[in-house]
Amino acid sequence: EKEMGALADAGVRLKVIGDVTGFAPELQTRIHSAEKATQHNQSITLVVAVNYGGRWDVLQAVKQWRRENPAVDVNQLTQADIDQYLSTSGMPEPDLVIRTGGEKRVSNFLIWQIAYSELHFSDVLWPDFSSFDLDKALEWFSQRQRRYGALSN
Q1: 85-94 confidence digits (pLDDT tens)
Q2: What is the C-alpha separation between 145 and 153, in angstroms, rounded?
Q3: Residue-wise DSSP of 96-144
Q4: How do 12-17 and 44-49 pair as beta strands?
Q5: Which residue of 14, 33, 41, 124 has the fewest CB atoms within a 10 Å radius of its CB?
Q6: Helix, strand or coil for residue 77?
């Protein structure tokens, strides 16, 4: 609520992903109100993951598909169907994921969406991750040969 004016002035669209049903009803209402108030902003989308897990995201997508398609045989479910029910539906998949703090895992984060993302691991802890570290990650990324699962020529 404190930042809504600044978000609106900057044209920022707020998108919260994750299972917010575990939060107090008042907080859920505030989250939905903030998303609704910024839904038409087009400068940039700020995605905030709260109570989010990749496995949860895939599971809720499948459940939502089933609720909306009760008569359809599950064998007709496609990857595109799941994509449209993920919490990130309509957003581009990440090209680069930067994992800080020396961890070498994705930790249940966007597990469906990062299938073809480049993964950069940094030993620097997040609070200390600087623009210099970001530049290093982007330099590393610029050297990658993106094949999206295909064999190189």
Answers
A1: 999 999 999 9
A2: 11
A3: EEEE-TT--S-TTSSTTTTTT-EEEE-SS-GGG--HHHHHHHHHHHHT-
A4: parallel
A5: 33
A6: coil
